[in-house]
From TrEMBL:
It comes from the Bacteria. PANTHER family: PHENYLALANINE--TRNA LIGASE, MITOCHONDRIAL, PHENYLALANYL-TRNA SYNTHETASE. The gene is pheS. This is Phenylalanine--tRNA ligase alpha subunit. One of its GO terms (biological process) is phenylalanyl-tRNA aminoacylation. Binds 2 magnesium ions per tetramer. GO terms for molecular function: ATP binding; catalytic activity, acting on a protein; magnesium ion binding; phenylalanine-tRNA ligase activity; transferase activity; tRNA binding. Keywords: Aminoacyl-tRNA synthetase, ATP-binding, Cytoplasm, Ligase, Magnesium, Metal-binding, Nucleotide-binding, Protein biosynthesis. Tetramer of two alpha and two beta subunits. InterPro entries: aa-tRNA-synth_II (IPR006195), aa-tRNA-synth_II/BPL/LPL (IPR045864), Phe-tRNA-synth_IIc_asu (IPR004529), Phe-tRNA_ligase_II_N (IPR004188), Phe_tRNA_ligase_alpha1_bac (IPR022911), Phenylalanyl-tRNA_Synthase (IPR002319), tRNA-bd_arm (IPR010978).
């Protein structure tokens, strides 16, 4: 038995020495020490050894196993070190090469202007409200004093889903929904995407963004509207900006006005940017029509209010002096990096 164990040990040492890599070394370990290995077979044959010889034979088997395991562990460490060394040599990193720069994104011009508008109005106590983009004809038109067959319906070139549902042409329906669900006082802005069947060109798109604002309370006058929009214009275009109100007509406000700001390029003197007029149109506004208040469940004898509508893209184009609205939607890196 001792000779057999010695033979197993010598063969194991030789095979370990010749293994050459970790995979072959593991094969040697399994062949000798595995469940069906040579040394394991010897242990299984212990039942055939005379009882008085078993302690001595067991000692020889343990000594053989210990010697083989020690050699296996020693060889494994050498092979792992050699493999790591080879890997380091084959995967050399040239630390002098320039690093790859990460492309860091930033806010879209529209998003930057919208954030500025939100900060201004929330600072004045307004809340930001959102509503559905697919809207009922009632909220988009009728509740805003635009009944069936009203010319304004044609002017807005509406996308109809069916005779009762449309893609909203403005965010004013959100104002109606707020008036129906909340009692005055109300101070709110409603930013969001709107849709009109316009041809795509430098100043038009079938999908764009508006910011509608509204205040409803006791004793609200046109003076409150003028003061609010004058401060808004200074916030967006600069402290020296002046505003001018021109009479206009909107079905949902009475009286109504278009608002111009003094040209921030020439200070109102007249230049190419303002087409020599010294003024630039930016939004429409007016006092909320009594009929609109009444349809929304608010008594116009007790409450009054004003509303305004801002085209987000128009403000963005003016603020950053962009001459083509399509640039905002093309996702061109070269354009967006300028802001």
């Amino acid at each position: 038995m001792r000779d057999k164990l010695q033979q197993i040990k010598e063969n194991a040492m030789r095979e370990i020495q010749e293994s050459g890599d970790l995979s072959k070394l593991n094969e040697v370990r399994v062949a000798i020490l595995g469940k069906k290995g040579e040394l394991t077979a010897v242990l299984k044959g212990m039942k055939d050894v005379a009882p008085e010889d078993r302690p001595k034979v067991g000692q020889w088997v343990n000594e053989t196993r210990a010697a083989i395991e020690e050699k296996l562990d020693e060889t494994k460490k050498k092979l792992e070190a050699a493999a790591l060394d080879a890997q380091l040599k084959s995967e050399v990193i040239d630390v002098t090469l320039p690093a790859k720069r990460n492309k860091i994104g930033h806010s879209h011009p529209n998003a930057e202007v919208l954030d500025q508008v939100k900060r201004f109005f929330t600072g004045m106590g307004y809340e930001v409200v959102e509503g559905p983009e697919v809207e009922y004809d009632y909220y988009n038109f009728e509740a805003l004093n635009i009944p069936a067959n009203h010319p304004a319906k044609d002017e807005q070139d509406t996308f109809y889903i069916n005779d009762k549902i449309v893609l909203r042409t403005q965010t004013s329906p959100v104002q109606v929904r707020v008036m129906e669900s909340k009692k005055p006082p109300i101070r709110m802005i409603a930013p969001g995407r709107v849709f009109r069947a316009d041809e795509v060109d430098a100043t038009h798109s079938p999908s764009f963004h508006q910011i509608e604002g509204m205040v409803i309370d006791k004793g609200i006058t046109f003076a409150d509207l003028k003061g609010t929009l004058a401060e808004f214009a200074k916030e967006i275009f600069g402290e020296d900006t002046k505003v001018k109100f021109r009479p206009h007509h909107f079905p949902f406000t009475e009286p109504s006005a278009e608002v111009d700001v003094s040209c921030f390029k020439c200070g109102g003197k007249g230049c190419r940017f303002c087409k020599g007029e010294g003024w630039i149109e930016i939004l429409g506004c007016g006092m909320v029509h009594p009929k609109v208040l009444r349809m929304s469940g608010i008594d116009p004898e007790e409450y009054s209010g004003f509303a305004f509508g801002i085209g987000l893209e128009r403000i963005t184009l003016l603020k950053y002096e962009i001459d083509d609205m399509r640039l905002l939607y093309e996702n061109d890196d070269r354009f967006l990096k300028q802001f």
